[in-house]
Amino acid sequence: MGGFFGTVSKTSCVTDLFYGTDYNSHLGTKRGGLATYSKEKGFIRSIHNLESTYFRTKFEGELDKFKGNAGIGIISDTDAQPIIINSHLGRFAIITVAKIVNIQQLEDELLSQNMHFAELSSSNTNQTELIALLIIQGRNFVEGVENVFKHIKGSCSMLILTEDGSIIAARDQWGRTPVVIGKKDGAYAATSESSSFPNLDYEIEKYLGPGEIVRMYDDHIEQLRKPNEDMQICSFLWVYYGFPTSCYEGKNVEEVRFTSGLKMGQTDESEVDCACGIPDSGVGMALGYAEGKGVPYHRAISKYTPTWPRSFTPSNQEMRSLVAKMKLIPNRAMLQGKRLLFCDDSIVRGTQLRDNVKILYDYGAKEVHMRIACPPLIYACPFVGFSASKNALELITRRIIQELEGDENKNLEKYATTGSPEYEKMVSIIAERFGLSSLKFNTLETLIEAIGLPKCKVCTHCFDGSSHF
């Protein structure tokens, strides 16, 4: 995935830029980058590898070198960013949160037009540079961004820092990823996560609509392109990716998780002693479940945060398994002799379940029930970079479908339909494979109801295969 932050201020932007970007750190682990602009110094840029450490440790010591009242920052799980370009549109720095499915096709087309790529990332084309090359084919920035929308398959939101000290913010044409505008006295900011705002004294000014483009100055924003009517914001933002205090489309992440748990707890017939959340993104759901079910919330597992990242992120399966095991520490005193119900955001590969359920029983748990905030993940995502998985068979559901059908692509619609014989069989196999006393997933209807947006505005492709390119 990835997250960005940009700000234009009447005074130096560096402190806000540093902390605002850092508040997006939960969205990526590979690269971090900052760029500022001032008339005296021009563009100043720095990019660091974050795979072995955190954003703050890489950038804290060099903040004095950044100058200016306008800057952009990125936490990226893809390429080295920002990219700085000199073109007929002037010099500009650009950062993107993007996934380009047809990048090879676009690369071939641009090379055939005698264009070149200079910012190779691990010998591959840097997709932010490719987006910049599509932008400079326009007569102005708006036309250039629309050219990006016209050509890419996938998604792309971006911030562009220009030579006049303003920032152009553009949201993906389907609104798959969010862009939130914040305001305080003497400054405007744009970010992927509104959780960047409270401690920096910004208030949410507006949520950019799908395909909307605005230009931010220190005292006002100017709309350059009106939003599209249709939207497909990623539902997984509320399920997993979002920080609890963030809001998208006016819908708070923690509130959605709490509501989904509450609704499940009100209807679930399980007999348990307490509800527990798998840290971090399962906690909100478990608190809601406990209230809906009328059982206490207990913290039977704690997350060790100083050194262990998310198990979802590493691309190496052995490392994912190690991270999943080491970052969560069970509390024997809260487990022994109890019928425990755990809430979690999702089951992707089953990395965490396999080791952790066994430990819970070893530590004296009488029963281990699992409740999942979203429906089973059946389809790999072609729209946003939400997964380190390279193919559908990395999903535990698709591996089970392959075992049952002899073909991982057979009868997917039936397996995605809650309550169908195929669905029930798949869920029972997952429960049995991990030694769970019971396993239930939230329905798609409950998830959409908790989010509070019309189903047609929310992308649920990973659950039901619905597609909008």
Automatic annotation (TrEMBL):
Keyword Iron-sulfur: yes
Occurrences of domain Glutamine amidotransferase type-2 (ranges): 1-219
Parts of the chain that traverse the membrane: none
Cofactor note: Binds 1 Mg(2+) ion per subunit. Binds 1 [4Fe-4S] cluster per subunit.
Pathway given in the UniProt record: Purine metabolism; IMP biosynthesis via de novo pathway; N(1)-(5-phospho-D-ribosyl)glycinamide from 5-phospho-alpha-D-ribose 1-diphosphate: step 1/2
Binding, Mg(2+): S281, D344, D345
UniProt-listed Pfam families: GATase_7 (PF13537)
BP-aspect Gene Ontology terms: 'de novo' IMP biosynthetic process; purine nucleobase biosynthetic process
Catalysis performed (reactions): 5-phospho-beta-D-ribosylamine + L-glutamate + diphosphate = 5-phospho-alpha-D-ribose 1-diphosphate + L-glutamine + H2O
UniProt-annotated binding residues for [4Fe-4S] cluster: C234, C381, C459, C462
Keywords carried by this UniProt record: Glutamine amidotransferase, Glycosyltransferase, Iron, Iron-sulfur, Magnesium, Metal-binding, Purine biosynthesis, Transferase
Superkingdom of this protein's organism: Bacteria
Molecular function per GO: amidophosphoribosyltransferase activity; iron-sulfur cluster binding; metal ion binding
Gene3D superfamilies in the cross-refs: 3.40.50.2020, Glutamine Phosphoribosylpyrophosphate, subunit 1, domain 1
Keyword Iron-sulfur in record: yes
EC number: 2.4.2.14
Names of required cofactors: Mg(2+); [4Fe-4S] cluster
Family per record: In the C-terminal section; belongs to the purine/pyrimidine phosphoribosyltransferase family.
Matching PANTHER family: AMIDOPHOSPHORIBOSYLTRANSFERASE (PTHR11907)
The protein, known as: Amidophosphoribosyltransferase
